[in-house]
TrEMBL record:
PANTHER family: NOTUM-RELATED, PECTIN ACETYLESTERASE 11. It is found in: Secreted, Cell wall. It holds the Pfam family PAE. This is Pectin acetylesterase. Residues 1-28 form the signal peptide. InterPro entries: PAE/NOTUM. Belongs to the pectinacetylesterase family. It comes from Salix koriyanagi.
Amino acid sequence: MYDNMAGSRLGQWLCLVVCILILLKAEGASIPITIVESAVSSGALCLDGSPPGYHFEKGSGSGIDNWLVHMEGGGWCESVESCVSRRDTFRGSSLKMEKTMGFSGILGSKQAANPDFYNWNRIKIRYCDGSSFTGDVEAVDPETKLYFRGGRVWQAVIDELLTKGMQNARNAILSGCSAGGLAAILHCDKFQSLLPATARVKCVSDAGYFIHGTDISGGSRIESFFGQVVKTHESVKNLPASCTSKMNPELCFFPQYVAQTMRTPLFIINSAYDSWQIKNILAPTAVDSKKEWKDCKLDLKKCSATQLQTVQDYRTQFLKAVNTGLGSSSTRGLWIDSCYAHCQSGSASTWLGDKSTEVGDTKMGKAVGDWFYDRSAIEKIDCPYPCNPTCVTVDSES
């Protein structure tokens, strides 16, 4: 009898495991990584010298000629030392990346959860260079064995996707989150130039609108940090010439200067209180020696009245930078919430779920779809914190 019970339980467990695997597959949780082997010959390599990779779920039906290319985020390395520290991680080596990945949010494959893009060709480019896909240094130090080749990585992946059908795209979006969201802005016009002139091509930046802001000391640590990123990776050659020809090229790592001369329509998804920006642009640890901002940065509810006013002033800085960059362009799209969040488009719960964040009664996924297909102009700017009861807390870099 014990054997029969054990066998029955084993059968139930096996059935459960199979059901879970089927569900995961249905949710797109087992999309394999594709390594761009051809990138080796062009030197388009991750920090450690391994070839780059991406995950690709093919389109179907009405979406077979539509392409959504999303770039992963994950910060930057601004010096040889910091790049060495990420070289042997999944942020610097395709050898360390997971072999499969699930898609959700803007990349989701369920019609109900992602009605405008669910059946498109959907790609996530993995991030392994630390420069928002802009670096291009020919020399490789024999001691560190670091490859600063992010710009080449981007081009190699795009070239491969073009051969897989993207050269015939009817609709296309270049998107990304965080450092990938910045890359979506920096590479937007170039992406558009590689696709058919008849294609509808637009770009979407999620949590990538990093501003040239003033910190609590009155300085701008982010300016020196981004400047070091650009110098270390020799990024200037891959920043938009429409910007670098007009100002200090290193400043063209900031979206507010690049966006001014962009030709391709751009949609900004961002919190005016972006958690990464509050922690690293407004109140970086380097200028908070007494750690007075430590608790406030973790939870805005713990800010003093004075600190909260400083945070509100940062919102003003942010909105001004958005208007400086995008002006009154008729092609711009804005969905700017007041949640303490970073990267909100990659999750089904924040993209178009039943309880997703709303700005002006509009959820993010609907806003992007309406804007892309020109169903309506979208300029949604939330009221000041803490006014929005629909906020969903998200703090990721994917």
